[in-house]
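WARN retry 2 of 3 for item q-0093 after timeout on previous attempt; input resubmitted unchanged.
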Amino acid sequence: RLGSIRSLLILLDAKDPELRQHALRVMEYSKTLAEFIQVPKATISSIKFAALLHEVGKIPEVTSSGDGFQRMTDRIVEPLKIPEKVKLILHHQSERFDGKGEPDGLKGEDIPLGSRILAIADAYDEGISSGRSEDEILEGISAFAGTQFDPLLIETLVSIRNADEEEDPDSKFESASSSDEPIQYSSQSA
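OK item q-0093 returned
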C-alpha cells in the first residue's frame, strides 16, 4: 500500500515538483482545520491521506476520452488498496456547498466533512502559492462561503487565523493550536 502511494508521489513530483509540495501543505492545513473542530483522529488520518493524493488526477494529461481532473483522480485511486473513507473524500473533493459541484452535485452536509475541509485547505494554499496576502486570501475564500465552501469551516479558518495573529502577528494558519476553543460542528463521517 505505501509503495503505491510513494510511487504516486514520485510521479506527482516528476510531473511538477510544486504539486507535491502543494499536497504536503494542503495536508497540514487540512489537519489544522480538522483538529481545531475536534474531528476524531482516525478521520484526521483519512483527511491527511486524501490531501496527499488530491492532485493525482493531474499526473496524466487529460485523455482524449474527455476525462477531466475528478474522473482521472477516481480512475487512479480506485484500484489502490487504501481505505474507502480516503477514496470517498477524494471522490467528493470538487463538490460545492451549494450543490453545483461535481461529480455528484452533493449539497451542504451531504458532502463528506473531509472533502469540505480539503476544498478549503486547497484553495487556501493556492492563494498562498499565488503570492496573495493572507487577508486577500481569507477575503476571497470568505466570498464563497455558502456557495463553494462550507460557511462554518470558513468561520473556523478565520478563527484559526485570528488566534494565530494574537499569538504571533507573522504566523500562518498552519500553526494553530488544537487547544483553542473549537467551533461546534456536526459529526458527519469523513
